[in-house]
Amino acid sequence: MVQLAKSYLEDNTNFTTLPSQDDVDEYRMMEDFAFSFNDERHKENLLIALQGKGAFRRFKDTVIYLGIADE
User: Fold this and answer.
1) Domain housing 44
2) What confidence tens digit (pLDDT) does each residue in 2-45 have?
């Protein structure tokens, strides 16, 4: 771990900064995923899952139900 820290301090061009929690918009990512489908049934089911309280869990359950977790 110390060697990795030294390596970073000496030359940080091989490293990239990960986005902070504030930079990640999970809801937008799920919405983009839903809109990426040509299959209107998948798109509609995913967008419905994103509505209201519990959207994250409902979206995950819908992805599993539709069998598109590997998409």
Assistant:
1) 22-71
2) 787 777 777 767 777 777 777 678 899 999 999 999 999 999 99
Residue 47 lies in a domain: yes
Phi, psi of 18 (to 5 degrees): -80, 150
Dist CA 50 CA 7 (whole Å): 43
Please check whether residue 6 lies inside any domain of the structure. no
Question: 27 lies in a domain?
Answer: yes
Task: Give the integer Cα–Cα distance in Å for 56 and 61.
Answer: 9
Spatial CA neighbour of 55 closest among 21, 24, 31: 31
The tokens of 71 are what?
Answer: 């998409």
**Element (DSSP H or E) covering residue 67:** none
**pTM exceeding the 0.70 threshold for the entire prediction:** no
